[in-house]
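The following record pairs a protein chain with its ligand, protoporphyrin IX containing FE.
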Amino acid sequence: MPLKNSATRWGSVSMGLHWLVVALILLMAWIGLRMGGMPNGPDKIATYALHKSVGISILALAVLRLAWRAVAGAPGHVAGTPAWQARIATLAHVALYALLLAIPLSGWVVNSSAGFPLQWFGLFNLPAIAGKDQGLHALAEQVHEWLFWTLVLVAVAHAAAAIHHHLFLRDDTLARMLPRGWLRVADKETHDA
Ligand code: HEM
Ligand code: HEM
């Protein structure tokens, strides 16, 4: 499988990063939504630390992904896509990238404004990106939570669109984000440019 993206298919790097981030977001949703209700103690502290380290990793992966996209390009819209649908898809992708940056950054502000230190898997410290401030802390918590629910909405619509393309429009949209041969596209073939 080629590393780079072609005019009609995603390469292994973009594909790998897409599905790795999907898996990490699911893990983060599960950790994030249950950690607040944990009893105080070392398990809770470790869970918060894990949430923050994985969250910072998602931020780094989003930057890496955008950098790779700038180098490797991206396939064009699947042939036959009406212009209005292509526009909505592009808008959703821009929103998803923006959320992948904004959610961890808002979490970082939650942490910094509480005056807590930030470590990445206990290996190194990251600087504070805001001063200690109770008002900012309360606001950042709200923003972090609402950005997360916005991601849930956009990602569900995005996934539903991909599945709709596969099952009903029977085009390459989903198949080209998966290794060749994983999904059969009825009546049509996937070609590399
Ligand atoms: C894409 C990455 C991230 C996702 C999807 C995510 C998701 C979540 C979710 C769902 C919650 C629970 C919200 C609630 O019910 O109140 C939460 C809380 C929290 N997150 Fe994240 N988070 C991410 C990154 C980060 C990062 C990088 C940090 C810190 C460096 C962080 C710090 C926190 C903190 C401190 C809370 C608890 C806030 C509170 O006490 O209400 N998060 N996060
Ligand atoms: C947290 C969840 C998700 C996020 C943040 C996300 C993010 C993204 C982003 C940013 C792109 C645009 C890639 C680019 O143009 O550079 C993309 C493409 C794509 N995503 Fe997702 N995605 C998520 C979940 C899913 C799921 C669950 C599916 C399938 C059921 C899916 C299927 C696709 C497909 C097929 C493409 C390629 C579209 C095309 O080639 O035109 N995504 N995704």
